[in-house]
Amino acid sequence: MVGQYYDDKTAKLVRKYGPGPRIHYHVGYYPASETPPHAHDATPEAIRHSIRLHQEGLLRYAAKIWGAEHRLSGRILDVGCGLGGGSLFWAQEYGADVTAITNAPEHPPIVDGFARECGVDGKVRTLVRDATQLPLDGPYDAAVAIESSGYFNRPLWFERLARVLRPGGSVCIEEVFITRPHGADVWAEYFYTKPVTVLDYVEAAKSAGFELVDDVDATSETSPFWDESAAWTKAVLDSDSSLSAVARRQMRISLLANQALGTEWKAGGLKLGFLRFELK
């Protein structure tokens, strides 16, 4: 169901976060020193540009936290790669050889095309499979999961990672975590997956031989994303008269969901965290 869900969303993702080649489907990072943009009177194109800029900022922040120059510059797995924005980022910025894992059959040709466009088609390969069926052609130096691990069977995923990573290898996770039940419900209603606690990850990882070594909270720095995301949707609704009645209804649902998520984010109902585990 999740694979079909993302196949169905491909055109919408390209419209909102494209045109590529590095297309991301995750929140953005807004440094505390930066004044969040006032997007209420901006065009959809201007808002989209800002969203993409801050999504790339999130990956650059992750790279700094995780020490990407030496941990994410070898053979890595990008598990739940989406349209490959992160895979291309690690390959282009850090020279990584990336195996991108997706369960959406429509996505590999898109990712492969973007990789050719970026000149890294020899450094990125895309495989269609479940996160618990990682390739055994390792060892890999690290695995990365950017807002994708919430869909995984975490105990089985960590067990599989223990088989394919080298000793001392890292599992780098950026994810939304639950801090109170209502926050989980708001997230689940829109994204079809219910977030869990950091402790749930720690326990699953420990059982497979991993130890938590980094836990960085970036909830406040990512909160403005929901304002921008909602602003883009509203700008499209206000400016695009060609939208069908069905598309307009779907976008209004998306607008309400983004507003609800922003409210829950600011109220402390959800946490955005960067975790790093090491294989003992």
Automatic annotation (TrEMBL):
This is Methyltransferase domain-containing protein. One of its GO terms (molecular function) is methyltransferase activity. Residues 76-169 form the Methyltransferase domain. GO terms for biological process: methylation. InterPro entries: Erg6_SMT_methyltransf, Methyltransf_25, SAM-dependent_MTases_sf. It holds the Pfam family Methyltransf_25. Keywords: Methyltransferase, Transferase. It comes from Lentzea indica.
